[in-house]
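Example record

The entry below shows one chain as it appears in the dataset: sequence first, then structure tokens.
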Amino acid sequence: MKEIVLSQKFERDELLEGRYVQREGLKTATESLESSLIKVIIGPRRAGKSVFSIQMLKGQNFAYLNFDDERLASISDYDELLKAIRQVYGETKVVLFDEIQNLPHWELFVNRLHRRGFNIIITGSNAYLLSRELSTHLTGRYVQFRIFPFSFLEFLRAKEFAIDEALELKEKQGLLLSHLDDYLDKGGYPEIVVKGLSVRNYLTTLFESVLFKDIVKRYSVRYSKMLSDLAHYLVTNHSNEFSYTKLKNILAFRSVHTVENYTKYLNEAFLLFFVDRFSFKLKEQMRSPKKVYGYDTGVINAIKFKTGRDIGRLMENLVAVELMRREVDSYYYKSVNGKEVDFVIKQRQKVTQLIQVCYDVDHYATKKRELASLTKAGKDLGCDQLTILTWDYQGEEKHADTRVNYLPLWRWLLMM
């Protein structure tokens, strides 16, 4: 056991020597080290959870264990593990456990260390396993941070693109739009952005690994081919509505229940997430179709069946991810006559903003359709903060006695 922990110490030391892009939320996370609460860092595989944790802990003497290491898969005596930590790291009370969900009954071990005064940081790539055990065994004793692939701001930092006064110059805006196009195409996975790895090979391998390692194996999925078909179908149809019954019929599942379970697994493994249709009636909201989005547009482009590049849908997906990153309570809306608004923003019981995403507002019919849907929803929901996110148009106009703001997507993405 000591040899395993020692070899991982070398891995820790290599990580500490690296130069990294400054991640959003790092200051708050670092300050949380002063608290005795367990620090929980969750998010998709390879999105940067380990590096984020290393950045948090820089300057501290901390123990590091990565449970993605197959040599730790069969561990049963956690006291032996603790003994090895002490042999390698000495008296330190600060411990980072990476991909903790791979350790059986991890919550009991973590709970015991926490009671003994250890300052614990854990990372994980399965939302359900972590939330279930945290809520059962560690209620009120942890603080959680979510890590996503790079935001557009982090992407620009990685490209050493300065956000300054010169951003108002058309020439610099042109370069920024080129970066945004690249970001939409390749996504924000750190190793893609920083190391320039092959996008398709890297992201396809990652996607398949999560499917078969984190879902099929962990949940003992019997019909792995059907799970894969479902995942690929949903990725291809990102930014669109779906219902479990429709998925069952299209993909020839035997039951709606199986479809529900498989989509839940995809969500818990951070491959896809779902947005509810807005309604003031909870029961109606729960019964309505949901919309599906991917955590990264690069993954979408690498995985989906090629049907042409629909930049409008990619923009919408990007907005959905950013709203989740900002921890905004968001929905989509569809009126009784089928007029749809991409995002409804709610604070407590009040709708505070409606957002429509539209690549090309120069096209008259498109602009007219988007304005009609947005202003109708504004009246239905009692909201006068109406925004259309565009590729590069900024302005304001009145439609049906309601003021509508047009804002370039890049400006909205850089708002903090």
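Notes for this example: The longest helix spans residues 199-219. The radius of gyration is 23 Å.
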